[in-house]
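Slides due. Your pick:
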Amino acid sequence: MSLLPTGPAAARAALLLAFAVPAALLGGAYISQYVFGLYPCEMCWWQRYALFAALACAALALVRPPAELLVRLAALAILIGGLIGGYHAGIEYGWWAGFTACTSAVDTSGDPLKAILDAPVIRCDVAPWDLLGISLAGFNFLISVPAALLVFVLQGRSTEGAS
């Protein structure tokens, strides 16, 4: 006996997971940025772009059935965002060399030159925060990759039990 649903229940679970994962990860990213001051580097933005695409596909799938292709595209985007997160985490941990381009968050109110000069420099090769030694990029990898694979499995099971 499997714990995973089959048929329409599996399709619905895949759709909800494809929507909830990027929504939660983007919500966490924006909370970390605007509440805790953890500004994203360039590679963090790459991960967000993939999650934006996943969220758009999943949201469209919620309002436009049949949604199989959109859910698969959302899962693929989640997987890509997670793999970028894994690559980014490896750079942060020093496992391999990678992009070290820096980005900065500029406050556009007031004197623009002062804002540019005072803007924090956000490095891609330094984790601004970690929990139990896992950076935010590492958590993205650990959440996104299994979630995307589960969406694919649930999509595959959605045809089981249907005659």
Summary: The radius of gyration is 18 Å. The beta strands are 103-104, 121-122, 130-131, 134-135.
